[in-house]
Amino acid sequence: MQRILIIGASSAIAEATARLWAGRGDALFLVGRRADRLEVIAADLRVRGAASVAWHLMDACDHSRHGEMLEAAVAAMGGLDTALIAHGSLPDQQACEASVDLTLKEIDANGLSVVALATRLAQYFEGQGSGCLAVISSVAGDRGRQSNYVYGAAKGMVSLFLQGLRNRLSKRGVQVLAIKPGFVDTPMTAAFPKGALWAKPEAIARGIVHAVDRRCDEVYLPGFWRLIMLVIRHIPEKLFKRLSL
Predict the structure, then answer these.
(1) Measured between alpha carbons, how far is 217 from 227 in angstroms, rounded to an integer?
(2) Nearest Cα to Cα of residue 138 among 104, 167, 119, 162
(3) CB–CB of 88/187 below 8 Å?
(4) What pLDDT, in 10s, does the model give residues 69-109?
(5) Which distant-in-sequence residues (6+ apart) come within 8 Å of 109 by Cβ?
(6) Is the dihedral of CA 21, 129, 87, 165 positive or negative?
(7) How far apart, in whole angstroms, are the C-alpha atoms of residue 137 and residue 159?
(8) What average pLDDT does range 129-140 have in this prediction?
(9) In the chain, which ranges are continuous DSSP H helix?
């Protein structure tokens, strides 16, 4: 049995992942901003076979509450083996371009709050000499594009931060996993037209569980995004500026 903390537990990807862990009999501690959603999800996970399920209300952007949340998770489960950071938002790029305040708010939601949580969790796992810190970043962080560069900048910061953290904690027996989904069909992307490159949350969840189990460092989900982003990263800047991406 694994003791697993999920931050942003009401997101579609996190909920689908939690269902897989519950089916294996793991203990789960859910963190989110809406009590009604957390209670519904927790009840479902108990039915699916979770060893235990508890939940905690917290806005991940309230950095001052991260410490008490971690203490509550450890107390509820008697320890911690894995943490999945899955919260975030999908900014309106044009609105961000018109507002410094909104840009910084979105950078915090998708970047700084993640870095703050990862730092605190890294301290915990390093202290016990084991654990898995899994963080949902995005393929958007691999290269800045005009259509979503505020979101991409935040995710790029997360991915780079995790690289350094991994380099440090690998010597301490701690796994640091960067999860990079492509397009995912969730309520957050409901307004977007869907095509062949879009994946369901359940498929992403299976990839996350597999990557955690195999102690991977980084995973693109679905896997074909690794090749797509390899090509995009290597487009010369002179040509890239002419593209409408």
Answers:
(1) 17
(2) 162
(3) no
(4) 999 999 999 999 999 999 999 999 999 999 999 999 999 99
(5) 60, 61, 87, 88, 89, 154
(6) negative
(7) 6
(8) 98
(9) 12-23, 35-48, 66-77, 93-97, 100-107, 113-128, 149-169, 201-213, 225-233, 237-240
